[in-house]
Amino acid sequence: MTRLHIIAEGQTEQKFVREVLAPYLWSLNIVTDSRCVLTSRDKTGKSHRGGLTNYQKAKNDIVRWIKQEHHNDDCYFSTMFDYYALPNDFPGWAESLRIADKYSRIEHLEKAMKEDIEDRRFIPYIQLHEFEALVFADLQRLKCEYFGYEAQIERLSRILENNFSDNPELIDDGPDTAPSKRIISEIREYDKASAGVNVANNIGIQTLRRRCRHFNDWLAQLENIAAIYKSKQAGTLRSGKT
After folding, report:
1. How far apart are CA 170 and CA 49, in angstroms?
2. 35 burial level (CB within 10 Å; 0-12, 13-18, 19+)
3. Which of 127, 128, 156, 202 has the fewest Cβ atoms surrounding its Cβ within 10 A?
């Protein structure tokens, strides 16, 4: 089995990787683990993780992890960062603001990040616009976590259908209108790290892929890791026979 390390922006993304994404990738013979971005160390040397405050800290953490696996060509790395509140020292940031199409903008940022990290095993991913886009993939699943909020959930559904062409990934990144902010405006008790991940898990990988194009593209790249590894193993076996 091949290995995949995912650097997550925060606890929610880390939990999603561990509880939803990892079991799916396991079925493809990819062992997946995740840790949050290292943000600081205190005077005792204790590490503090979570929150993408600036790009350089994230880069240092990614590069450090990659170097630890420098000897392993079958170990890959990825990220799960939100576009919402992405730090403006991110590579390609200034140029990206001139790109109107959100998908093209994210692709530009991911390409710039890959070029900055400079490792063929690195597969950058930026969630458009944040984790809660995945929850918007099937808002009806919120009813399993929050009883008696049918009217509020229907209002969220109408916002998605009427304002964003029923595409969860196109919900904007305003401080009051980002996906998580919209959910909290209707369900004040909403907790992304527990309920949000539970909802995404209940929605299921296949629906998430169908409803979220950029998320689907990421999974396709991760699935390709398994295909590459399988091909290499087959080549090794053929070489051994000859």
Report:
1. 29
2. middle
3. 202
Per-residue tokens: 127: 């969630």
Distance, in Å, from the CA atom of 67 to the CA atom of 126, rounded to the nearest integer, reads 22
Q: How far apart are CA 156 and CA 174, in angstroms?
A: 16
Residue ranges per structural domain of the chain: 2-128+213-241, 132-205
Residues 6+ apart with CB under 8 A from 203: 134, 135, 137, 138, 141
The 3-state DSSP class for residue 218 equals helix
H or E segment at 198?
helix 197-203
pLDDT tens column, 45-100? 555 566 788 899 899 999 999 999 988 888 999 999 999 999 999 999 999 999 99
pTM of the model: 0.91
164 with 170: CB under 8 angstroms? Answer: yes
The gap between the terminal CA atoms of the chain, to the nearest Å, is 24
Q: Which long-range contacts (CB under 8 A, 24 or more apart) does 153-162 make?
A: 153/186, 153/187, 155/186, 156/182, 156/183, 156/186, 160/136
The second-level CATH assignment, the architecture, of 2-128+213-241 is 3-Layer(aba) Sandwich (3.40)
How far is CA 146 from its chain centroid? 24
